[in-house]
Amino acid sequence: MTVNNSPRAVLAASFTPGETAVPDAKRFTREVMTAWAAMSVNAEAERLAAELVAGAPDEPFEVVWIHQGDSVQIEVREKSEQAEFGSLAGAASWGVTFTPSLRNRWARLKLPGGEVQSADEWIAEAARGPGWLGFLADASELLAGTLNPDMVPAIIAQVVVPRLASWCAVYTAVHATGPLRLAYLWHADEMQIDGLRERLADAQMPSEDGPVVLHVDGWQSLAFPLTARGRQLGVMCLGRHDRFPDEAMQLAEDLSRRAALAMDNARLYAQQAAANRALQRSLLPPDEPTTPGLDFHVIYEPAGETNEVGGDFYDLFPVSEGVWRFAIGDVCGTGPEAAAVTGLARHTLRLLAREGYGVAAVVGRLNHAILEEGERARFLTLLHGEITRVEGGLTIHLVSAGHPEALRLRPSGAVDVVGSPQSLLGVFPEAEFRAESAHLGPGDVLLGVTDGVTERRSGTRLLDDDGGLSRLLAECVDLSARAVAERIRRAVQDFAPEPMSDDLAILVLRAP
């Protein structure tokens, strides 16, 4: 017997480490086995998934299931250095492979009989028992598990084939009113995909509701519109060598409605994410300034989901020859309301600085501007300062308005606080601010961070408990501004296994 090792189907999902990683991977495995009608090996598949995922490092990883016809293979792909890999009981074979950036641990399970149950057998069995509802539930969970619009057509096709049809083609429109294009094509026999693609090239996609006969030479074909919220987003086309059973048509029609909702949700999410990425970019400096005589580096990482605008911001811009202004701030909350205050703060700081206002005067006027926003206002902590190049280093005039304290590192390794705490912005209209001066001699470093650094939590401990940030900075003697910032970021990431739940901004200035 010749074994065909080319994959018949591939389904993948990304996971983050933590307590839910193993149950999430087992649930994903159960959904895949259901979609592939391989429930006979589901128990072993879930056990292998749990064992492989339990050994994953504290970094995001990917679980990939590959259908090989006579077997199914699980792969756990992760960024990790080489490590030992023990045997997996029950697996037909297992191993570990490496690329320059990935470790891939895998195991393979033989399928009983070497092939999956035929589509007609599965449809007849599902119609008599709970398999129908179980299939739709698991298919819905698979579809809902991705917010990537490009992945939805692939999931649709791989769920349908070979359960309901021999092949599935999913057409989508790039724009709501644009022409349909073939987004994904899958066939139970991958050797026939290219030929089928040519036959579908001239097929006319219907625009009416309900299943419509599609004329494809050599196939009994049906097209099901993918319609959500009154808009047709695409078409799901199925093909068989014989007539479609009534049960298969009902199941496909139900699945098409669920697939359309998943596609619509994914598109809305992607549009919102794109809009918020553009908004986020507009709230940050447009480009990196030229700063002769000043070594600086900034790290900014929003911790929210892709569709959420972070509340942290930074800025560094020239005011005159040899003079710059810098700011690092944290707006209470996230989303559009926080973005409005962030935009107000960044533009106010730049405008007033170029109008000749001093650091304290700028912060005071920004406080009143935020209060004038009324109910839309958000509290803001801010570290704002002016840098002047002088003989023997840099002079800093700064205001720390409710912000985590700025730290200065000396070449000797000594660390001290620069600036005393003053009122945060957007709370007290009568607040007055004063600028304080500090000097950065050759090799001195000034560090400003947001509370995403100081309040990084591991259990009941915070990173800055007992001067934790000062100790970290003391280890950065003789490092460049970039190296200092990267050292702080790595320390924040390594402090706790959980992903960061707060935005992070780090600003490092170093006198030459």
UniProtKB/TrEMBL annotation:
<dbReference type="InterPro" id="IPR052016">
    <property type="entry name" value="Bact_Sigma-Reg"/>
</dbReference>
<dbReference type="InterPro" id="IPR001932">
    <property type="entry name" value="PPM-type_phosphatase-like_dom"/>
</dbReference>
<dbReference type="InterPro" id="IPR029016">
    <property type="entry name" value="GAF-like_dom_sf"/>
</dbReference>
<protein>
    <recommendedName>
        <fullName>PPM-type phosphatase domain-containing protein</fullName>
    </recommendedName>
</protein>
<dbReference type="Pfam" id="PF07228">
    <property type="entry name" value="SpoIIE"/>
</dbReference>
<feature type="domain" description="PPM-type phosphatase">
    <location>
        <begin position="294"/>
        <end position="511"/>
    </location>
</feature>
<dbReference type="InterPro" id="IPR036457">
    <property type="entry name" value="PPM-type-like_dom_sf"/>
</dbReference>
<keyword id="KW-0378">Hydrolase</keyword>
<dbReference type="GO" id="GO:0016791">
    <property type="term" value="F:phosphatase activity"/>
</dbReference>
